[in-house]
Amino acid sequence: MVKRPQPVWRGTNLTKIGDFNEAVLVDAIRRSPDGISQVELVRVTGLSPQTISNIKRRMSDAGLILEGERLRNGVGKPRTLLRLNPGGAYALGVHLDPQMMTFVLLDLQGRVVKHARRSTPVATAPDAVVAEVVSTITGLIDSAGVEPSRLVGIGFASPGPIDVDAGVVLDPPYLPDWRNVPLRDHLARATGLPAILDKDVVAAAVGERWAGVSVDYQSSAFLYLGTGVGVGIVTDEHVLRGTSGNAGDIGHLFVSDDGPACTCGSRGCIGVTLNPAGIVKQAMDLGALPTDTPVGDLDAVDAALMHLARFAMDGQPSAREVMTLTGIQLARAAQTLVNLLDTEILVLGGPTWTRLGSFWLDQLSPAVRSGSIRGDRGGRGEIVVTGTKLGDDVCAIGAASLALDHTFSPRPSAFVLS
Question: In Å, how far are 150, 191, 263, 299, 380 from 16, measured between CA atoms?
Fold first, then answer.
């Protein structure tokens, strides 16, 4: 029998940003990493100078902002730059993957203070799962020396499908023992912190807006490539979750005329063509990898992808052919998404992208732009196609960002669960 973990951080003394105007100010300062003056805040927020002065005083007392250097532009009183205090608040993030669980401790500026990885526990009992999570995040907090009162919450990113309202992991692929796990409430009870459960691709999209390359774009899409394939969508700074909270499942998007058979009855779906096993199978067919590679073993498949990347880097013709073929398949999916969503930026990430993205990126950008029906109409320029700068931590960072967003976003209905 697994011992139920005891609450480790009951409550928080951190002043909550309950006022919409305060959240607007936090958001404006966050988007100005080099600092922003009160005069500039009046311009970008529309708030009165007196309102900003009052909010600034409360935020300073709460330790959320720092007053930095003083700038003099011409005559008049020098302007003082305001920045978020990185140590003013922290959030915890956990990403569940069939192979590995990733944990991060994030500061208020969206920077990773500590992170860890553990093998994904095979367990049906929520207590066993939560015990593993609590043990790991306790170690992160202790090693970082963070005051528990500065923790605003914990976010958990899981493959779908999930029940967002109930906070339940339903039946993720490749994780048969995680069926119907009421993870959110168990985490909240065990840690004493507000807990949020969301899909991994949604978390990644939010993480990119807090700490990644999407921060300056109102509309973005994050294409996740791993054991599963999905997309997180942001339009006009609203994350799209769909009716059940499971939007972004693109596993049956067609990418290959002669691709492998899918469970849906079709062939060439992205979920079976460009998942790790699908790429390894294509490499085996083209002679780039041994034909006896065990594609049913997740660890063996991941190792095979790393071998494939090394062979391609060394210039092996068959490995290069695999990169070209899979790049064409990925470009087909990317073109469809860009035209469907009319987004400003497409960001790619996930374990498969980490292994192979450097071979695909040069193919993707021109292919997506040439296939975009938008072109440069509307004065918004060409679509930006790029890889995440957050690496394999992107979903965990996103999960922690959900907790920060829950506390500090001026659009609580846009990003975060109510």
Answer: 11, 18, 47, 43, 37
Q: Could you tell me if 233 and 205 are in contact, meaning their C-beta atoms sit under 8 angstroms apart? A: yes
136 and 183 co-located in one domain: yes
CATH number at residue 169: 3.30.420.40
User: Residue 273, Cβ neighbours under 10 Å: how many?
Assistant: 28
Q: pLDDT band for 399, please (50, 70, 90 cuts).
A: very high
Domain that holds residue 82: 20-87
Q: Looking at the structure, tell me whether residues 74 and 154 fall in a common domain.
A: no
Give tens-digit pLDDT for 259-316: 899 999 999 999 999 999 999 999 999 999 999 999 888 889 999 999 999 999 999 9
Within a domain: residue 229? Answer: yes
Measured from the Cβ of residue 312, the count of other Cβ atoms closer than 10 Å reads 22
Number of domains, the chain: 3
C-beta of residue 26 within 8 angstroms of C-beta of residue 59: yes
Q: What pLDDT was estimated at residue 408? A: 79
pLDDT interval class at 123 (50, 70, 90): low
DSSP label at 79?
E
Distance (Å, rounded) from C-alpha 241 to C-alpha 257? Answer: 30
Contact criterion met (CB below 8 Å) for 400 and 156: no
Last residue of a domain, one of 69, 87, 105: 87
- The predicted model scores a pTM of 0.86
> Distance between CA atoms of 412 and 418, rounded to whole angstroms?
7
225 and 323 part of one domain: yes
Show Cβ contacts of residue 124 under 8 Å, excluding neighbours closer than 6 positions.
Answer: 177, 178, 179, 181
- Shared domain for 96 and 229, answered yes or no, is no
- Nearest-angstrom CA–CA distance, 143 and 114: 8
